[in-house]
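Protocol step 4 of 6.
Sequence for Protease 4 (Leptothoe kymatousa TAU-MAC 1615) entered exactly as in the expression construct, tag removed. Do not edit the line below.
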Amino acid sequence: MRDFLKYTVASAIGTLVGLFSLIALLGLGALGLASLFITSAATETEPEVDKNSVLVFDLATDIVDAVPYSGASIVLEETLSGSSYRALSLHSALQAIEAAATDDNITGIYMTGNTFAGFGTLQEVRAALEKFKTESGKPILANNTLWSERDYYLASVADTIYLNPAGIMELNGFRAEIQFLAGALNKYGVGVQVLRAGRYKSAIEPFTRTASSPEEKQQTQALLTDLWQEFLTTASTARETTPEAIQAIAENKGILPAAEAQAAGLVDNVAFYDEILTELRELTDQTDQTDWFKNDDDFTQISLYNYSQILDPEFGKDTIAVIYANGEIVDGDGEAPGLITSGGLSDTLRQARNDDDIEAIVLRVNSPGGSAIASEVIAREVELLAEQKPVIVSMGNYAASGGYMIAAPGDQIFATPSTVTGSIGVYGLRLNFKEIANRNGVTWDIIKTAKLADIDTISRPQSDDELKLQQGFVNTLYDRFLTLVSEGRELPKEKIDQVAQGRVWSGSDAKSASLVDQMGGLNDAIAAAAEAAELDEWQVEEFPKPPSLEEQILDSLFGFSVSVPWAKDPVSEQLLELREDLTLLHTLNDPQGVYMRLPFTTEIE
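Step 5 output, structure tokens:
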């Protein structure tokens, strides 16, 4: 309650200050400004596909497990932010690649840029590109100045891979870096006490240790090995080499100049963009030099995002709802970008349950977990939904801990081999600031009417009796977690406990552990949903919908955000990383302070 009041008051003060400042600056001009945005949105030119166009796939395109803003909404966002950032839902991206295969106006795909997508997403997109190439016979070209492993995982599907003569290829393996705060907390006098159920539940380790436990090293090594093996197998098969050859490069070279990458057979040609442009123009039938200047572009093209916006909508007498559960799981209501609120997602699930036009549901989970209570609230709604309609779960990059809990009641669970899942366990942290406060002259005096009235105080460490009491609550939640998974998977609780204990699994290992039913992506889950509902024709509708244009205008006019314009030097990057880790603590808002979440300071690169 104390934190709630603190953040509520701070938020209210910030809102009032911003509102008064806005009124002083704009007066009644806000209505005119809003009108301008709407007019701009209404006059946006609809993209078109010219004959002999190349579909350009910028790998930096943000492919998300959500319904992104589009149409007039994106124009408003660009106008207010001054940026051209655009996101694409995974379903839309896959649909666009599939449609391009049979579109006579599309002659091929050109990939460039660098991706930041998770490996689960990359596997699904790569499968769609492989299907495009196989079924259409149209070429895929890929060009870059830097190929990292993530980029190359996609680019390896191409018929021809280019690398700039001054470019490099990074093939040095995957690593996981875990940042530990225990030493700093101890130095500054911040006390940490731990509640935990599951010996692999390592999310608390950054606050209590200076290095990983043997259990954490074991599970992380196994996960990295699975991800790396998937990369080696896919890339070596595509390039007609061996996993051992690529492993040798990772062990002995790590970074390859362009000429060496070509000699190793990892790229086909070393060329500047103007040399590649000749082939792209031939692909678009622009062989006459007089045609080169008819377009503003170097060659006839359409971006993957624009192409997805002009596809004919799917029509069918029945609807399959794809419901996205993307981000941290928190206690609360409404929709928030990057967060799954217990109230917001529960409302969406209830609406799908009560909508007679929706015959089946695909729950797309891309979440490392979060609040234990919020996760169970959502899981209950999934359970109720599954009692009335087929619910097929599609796991994205992550579907772990609380993310796995909300998936468990589904009729079938699909995952990619690179999905990070499992982590069935519970933890809690109890921080106290007695030492650092006392050093600086701050003390507390607590007056209470019952022995446990100050059990949640930060003024002192918890007593053994208090910790024992709370550990009992954590154990109860863990038992409820096991029961929910046991019932959802129709397996004995004892068997679930053996593969639980907070342990993290790759998608392929999770299938062996009976936590996952099938290897497959979002489209596979949609097909399974149609089969379960016995549908011959169907349309896909994505939920939850983004805010309306009017809601965005109000939020943009009266909401404020702060950006940190630091240069990306190594020191600044570490400070920003630490800032993000500490900021994440604000999302840990479970009413009882217990969580079902992956280790949040682990970065896999």
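Step 6, annotate. The radius of gyration is 26 Å.
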